[in-house]
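Open question from group meeting: does this chain pack into something compact, or does most of it stay loose? Before anyone orders reagents, we agreed to write out a predicted structure and look at it together. Recording both the input and the output here so the notebook holds the full record.
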Amino acid sequence: MNLAGTAEFETADGSKVRMEPGDVLVAEDLKGHGHIARSLGNEFRVSLAIPLAD
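Structure tokens returned:
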């Protein structure tokens, strides 16, 4: 969950998703090539990660 700041996530296939405060990301593909996360703007980004059971 993105708590503060704006972020952009880029997946291995080049897709990009912009996240604003309050947005939730559920990452289900844990065996791929990963992702790149970038903070956008001048505000610090604060996020919360919660692992889910299989």
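Observations to bring back to the group:
Strands lie at 2-4, 6-11, 16-19, 35-40, 46-47.
The chain has a mean pLDDT of 89.
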